[in-house]
What we know:
Structural class: mainly alpha
Helix content: over 70%
Radius of gyration: 25 Å
Distance between the termini: 50 Å
Number of helices: 2
Largest sheet: none
Low-confidence stretches: none
GO molecular function: nucleotide binding
Protein name: Disease resistance N-terminal domain-containing protein
Mean pLDDT: 77
Coiled coil: 28-55
Domain Disease resistance N-terminal: 6-83
Keywords: Coiled coil, Nucleotide-binding, Plant defense, Repeat
Shape: rod-shaped
Amino acid sequence: MAEATVSVILEQMTAITIDKAIEAWSLVQGAEKEVKRLETNFKAHRLELEDAQEKEYVDKRVKLWLDKFRYVSYDMEDVLDEW
């Protein structure tokens, strides 16, 4: 009787563990795809940043925008580096 109970409990625990492992793996894969998407966007933003740096001396509005953009860009880079 005790063996049957233990066997049932072990089967249920195994099923739960497998489900949780599959769920965790799916989350990791989703995060990796998101990081790759962010890296692509970041590279595009870097090009915009370089273009804006050339124009910042001509237009003061560009300089203001560029300062804000620079801080966001640095934050994005830090997050991607940590990943």
